[in-house]
Design a protein that fits this description.
Strand order of the largest sheet: 17-18-19-22-21-20
Distance between the termini: 157 Å
Number of helices: 22
Oligomer: single chain
Helix content: 25-40%
Radius of gyration: 49 Å
Structural class: alpha+beta
Strand content: 5-15%
Length: 702
């Protein structure tokens, strides 16, 4: 008994491979499986042991394993051929001493006489049966090996394929030189990387296969078209080369480009949730434009909102959402993350909904947030998530939505539930003649109303079973596969309750940080606006160290206040309100405040420009007035002595007389025209008037 050998296995020694056909204890029957004229032979146990001592018999892989294990459908022609061949040799393989030449020859002689087949045919099938493993499938026909699959075919100079039926020109036979030119033409056309984008944003190669074929012909004839008049490589030959040379993956990548191929067409080898322990390990966060417009309180159309969703990667449950009329930004992302960790009962109460905790039970801080490499999620500002709260911020590679498949599909599920209910739908990819819709006048819903609708939809989707699969083997069969059930079971049996965190502190910690200047000891200046630090002395004292800076947190939705970041050992964010002189910026977002400040500055700059021109004009007039006075002074005082020049200096009567015109200009019209004196009384009236003025405008020194 050969204890180290197994019947029908293949062993190697002396550089050849042998199959053990039978083991009879004292001796064994082998056959060489590599020779075409091999027949069974006998070796005793001693001979086998001697060979093993000298050559170390090795158990090797059966080279006929794949051929024998072929399977075909029931009733296939190959099964009929196999059974027919087996019936021909059944009398020999069923014999007791088939390995003895004389007895084997007698059996074969009987089969030949019975016209079962020729001797050579019977020997061929016997060898195939013994060499390939002594199973019926060893006699399957080898037609699949015919034709040299995958090998280039040649027929001398004669063209392969069906003879040409139409046309007077001949087609060329493919040669290595021609294939090299074909490959070059394809490389510089289809694989050149030039794409256009259709209405849906999908890339499309600008070159067609016909364009590559024409480029090949131009290269093949080297610019002389007359060379192709009598013999031209056919387009079918070029097409066959293209599909044979380049794999389906390479052709698809060339058709739409690497970026679109990797995002939508490449084979997925794994799933993000495959390595997750349970719910709460990874939250996918993403944003997309919502497909319905919004209006204000007076139902005036405002615009298209942005929807943020936060999806648990393990259970596909929606743990939070944020609907806003502002585009994607870091501020919107941090608010969506805050919604994800909050108690949903309180959140829905702010929306005007009253729910039970079981309706939406997802809350708590996850192990990681998983983003899409967008600018709103790869900002340095979000590092506080990892530094202060121990939750990782992970971003997938660019253009890899398949890694966030559950989050991407969630948008479609929400939209499918409510799209038929909403007015003001948007079809941005299709023109109107193809059924596209863009009617801003139909925007009807308010932001609060749509928030409540989406909240109800999220709770409905979280309670909807998601199929038999997508759960582990230990998941109870009596429990449905809705996100709610998967979340509750996973929290209880896998991850445990998520880390609870104060939403207020979490929101403050994610706010954008910056430096504000300190002036006068209690005033903060940030982006040209001033804020007052509370609980500080109200002294208007000069601060000589005016370069002092303080770290502040900025709420982008409200420029009415900024927040002092706690210093070492402190916990409270101090709210600093706008200084009273800047009250015109209260209630504005920071973006609107910056735009208003810029508008004010532009207005003041324009006004200063006009003021400068006006001031210059008046100054020139003043200079002319002074110059004329100086000239008049020179002409009138040219012949006066110094005593005559100073004779009226300090004359009060003269001063009052000169001021009379100014006083008259100030008087009301009715006071200036009391009556018109007659010619006879004019001199007397003037004297009396002067006397009254002298009394009224008498100086203290008079």
């Amino acid at each position: 008994m050969l204890d180290f050998m197994t019947r029908n296995h293949v062993y190697s020694w002396d550089g050849h491979k042998y199959r053990l056909l039978d083991d009879f204890g004292d001796f064994a029957i082998f056959i060489n499986i590599e020779k075409d004229d091999a027949l069974p032979f006998q070796l005793t146990v001693q001979q086998v042991e001697n060979i093993d001592d000298q050559h170390q018999i090795i158990n090797v892989e059966d080279p006929w394993r794949e051929s024998v294990n072929r399977s075909y459908e029931v009733g296939h022609d190959y099964h009929a051929i196999r059974d027919s061949n087996l019936a021909r040799i059944q009398g020999v393989i069923g014999g007791s001493k088939y390995w003895i030449k004389k007895q084997r020859a007698e059996l074969i002689k009987v089969l030949v006489s019975m016209k079962v087949g020729a001797k050579s045919t019977i020997y061929r099938y016997l060898r195939r049966y013994w060499q390939r493993g002594q199973t019926p499938n060893a006699l399957l026909p080898d037609y699949a090996n015919c034709g040299g699959k995958g090998k280039p075919k040649t027929r001398g100079e004669k063209r392969l394929g069906r003879p040409k039926e139409h046309g007077s020109y001949d087609s060329s036979q493919s040669t290595p030189e021609m294939e090299s030119v074909m490959e070059t033409a394809i490389k510089y056309t289809i694989f050149s990387g030039k794409y256009t984008v259709d209405k849906k944003g999908k890339p499309k190669n600008v070159f067609r296969l016909e364009d590559a074929y024409l480029d090949f012909l131009a290269r093949w004839c080297d610019g002389d078209v007359r060379k192709l008049e009598n013999e031209k490589p056919s387009s079918d030959l070029f097409k066959a080369f293209f599909y044979h040379k380049f794999s389906p993956e390479a052709r698809a990548k060339a058709k739409v480009g690497d970026k679109y191929f990797n995002a939508n067409l490449r084979k997925l080898n794994s799933d993000v949730s495959a390595n997750l322990v349970g719910p709460g390990y990874s939250y996918e966060i993403d944003a997309t434009p919502f497909d319905a417009g919004l209006a204000d309180e007076e139902r005036f159309p405002l615009g298209r909102p942005t929807l943020y969703e936060v999806i648990d990667s393990d259970t596909s449950s929606c743990v939070g959402f944020l609907l806003t009329l502002t585009p994607p930004s870091y501020f919107n992302a941090m608010n969506a993350m805050t919604v994800a960790i909050r108690d949903k009962v309180e959140l829905c109460r702010e929306f005007g909904l009253e729910i039970e905790p079981s309706d939406w039970s997802m809350q708590g801080l996850p192990k990681a947030f998983f983003g899409d490499l967008g600018s709103d999620l790869r900002s340095k500002k979000i590092t506080s998530v990892t530094v202060e709260h121990g939750s990782a911020m992970i971003n997938s590679g660019a253009s890899q939505p398949e890694k966030r498949g559950k989050g991407e599909r969630s948008f479609g599920r929400v939209y499918a539930e409510i799209s038929h209910l909403l007015p003001g739908l948007i079809s941005q990819y299709l023109p109107k003649k193809h059924g596209g819709k863009y009617k801003p006048e139909d925007y009807t819903m308010l932001l609060d109303e749509l928030n409540r609708i989406i909240a109800r939809t999220v709770m409905v989707l979280n309670s909807k079973p998601m199929g038999v699969g997508k759960v582990d083997a230990d998941y109870p069969t009596k429990l449905d596969t809705s996100p709610n059930s998967k979340w509750n079971w996973g929290i209880a049996h896998r991850t445990g309750p998520l880390h609870s965190i104060d939403p207020e502190y979490f929101w403050y910690s994610l706010l954008e940080r910056d430096q504000a200047s300190v002036s006068r000891g209690y005033i903060l200046t940030y982006k040209h606006l001033q804020f007052e630090i509370p609980d500080t002395p109200g002294l208007r004292e000069r601060v000589y160290n005016n370069r002092q800076k303080m770290e502040v947190a900025i709420d982008q939705s409200d420029a009415s206040a900024i927040y002092l970041v706690p210093k070492n050992g402190e916990t409270k964010y101090i709210k600093c309100l706008l200084y009273v002189h800047y009250r015109r910026f209260e209630g504005l977002t920071w973006r609107d405040a910056e735009l208003r400040y810029k508008e004010i500055q532009d207005t003041n700059n324009d006004a200063m420009h006009h003021h400068t021109l006006y001031a210059l004009e008046q100054q020139l007039k003043n200079k002319e007035e002074v110059r004329a006075a100086i000239e008049d002074k020179k002409s009138k005082s040219a012949n006066r002595t110094m005593s005559e020049e100073l004779s009226k200096l300090g004359d009060k009567a003269a001063q009052r007389d000169e001021s009379k015109a100014i006083y008259g200009a100030v008087k009301p019209e009715s006071a200036r025209n009391e009556r018109n004196p007659s010619n006879n009384d004019s001199q007397t009236s003037v004297v009396m008037a002067n006397t009254r003025l002298n009394k009224i405008f008498m100086d203290d020194e008079d």
